[in-house]
Design a protein that fits this description.
By secondary structure, this protein is of the alpha+beta class. The protein is built from 8 helices and 5 strands; from the N terminus they run H-H-H-E-E-H-H-E-H-E-H-E-H. It has a 5-stranded mixed β-sheet with strand order 1-2-5-3-4, with helices on both faces.
Length: 284
């Protein structure tokens, strides 16, 4: 009898130990899944931040180049004025006539500065309104820059499209609706949608190459802006540049990720912009 009791107790202990081990194993598996998901999320977040840093570095380089270009223009203008003074002295041109020429040139320069300031102000307001409307999560995948009077909105392909496709996915709708509102509010601007890819060949049977893919993706965005959010199609242009407008080399995954993008380029209407700046003064 005692032997049976002892055996029963031993079996119960083994079963309890087995149950405890199974619970611990299940707990370890759950914890491993959570840690793996957190690691993947951290990797994606880091990739997004690295892409944002690279974009800001590119913007700084472009602004530095623009500043150098402005300095060069100022130098050329000074050289032109100095040459005018020299020619006037050599040819006995009247001082009054020379002063008129200088004043006219200065007036035109001030006019251009005013136009540029007005354009920069409008672009700054447009950019601020857009970035304020985007969430922190959206800003990880949307890059907004202003260069020479043009607003560039760059959207990551994995935010817009289904993988290897030109179909707009559901998570892009909210972001595109905010961009559409900004476009609708600023009626004096035209909008170019430009698709870009990396250099990995496309293997879909109905898409011949990356030219096709980039154009189809741009067209998809245009049609969503028009059909779902009411943007005037007369203001929209769809185009694709395939793999031939890279931001970085395609030899790294980060470089490929940055190159796979769709740009929404917002620019003043050409006829109104030319009317705004007027004509240059005639040379006397």
């Amino acid at each position: 009898m005692k032997k049976n009791v002892f055996m029963f107790a031993a079996m119960a202990a083994i079963m309890l130990s087995s149950c405890a081990s199974k619970k611990e194993l299940d707990s370890c598996r759950d914890e491993n899944k959570t840690l793996t998901a957190n690691l993947q999320s951290a990797k994606e977040d880091l990739a997004g931040k690295n892409a944002r840093i690279s974009a800001l570095e590119d913007q700084l380089a472009l602004q530095t180049a623009a500043l150098q270009e402005q300095k060069f223009s100022n130098t050329k203008l000074q050289e032109s004025l100095d040459k005018s003074l020299t020619n006037a002295s050599m040819n006995n041109v009247s001082i009054d006539k020379l002063v008129d020429q200088i004043n006219e040139s200065n007036q035109y320069i001030r006019h251009l500065v005013e136009v540029k300031s007005k354009s920069d102000s409008l672009n700054m307001v447009l950019t601020n309104n857009l970035t304020r409307s985007l969430s922190k999560e959206e800003l990880k995948e949307v890059d907004v820059q202003v260069l020479k009077g043009v607003v560039y909105i760059s959207l990551a392909d994995n935010m817009l499209y289904q993988s290897g496709s030109y179909e707009i996915n559901d998570r892009a709708a909210k972001t595109l609706s905010k961009i559409a509102k900004i476009i609708t509010d600023y009626k004096d601007y035209d909008v170019l949608i430009e698709g870009n890819t990396d250099n990995v060949p496309i293997t879909k049977p109905n898409i011949r190459n990356n030219w096709d893919l980039s154009c189809l993706r741009a067209s998809s965005v245009v049609q969503v802006l028009q059909n779902q959010y009411g943007v005037d199609p007369k203001r929209l242009t769809a185009g694709g540049r395939g793999e031939f407008n890279p931001l970085q080399g395609n030899d790294t995954e980060l470089g490929k990720q940055r190159n796979r993008r769709t740009q929404i380029i917002i620019t003043p209407k050409l006829d109104e912009f030319m009317e705004l700046i007027g004509e240059a003064p005639e040379t006397k």
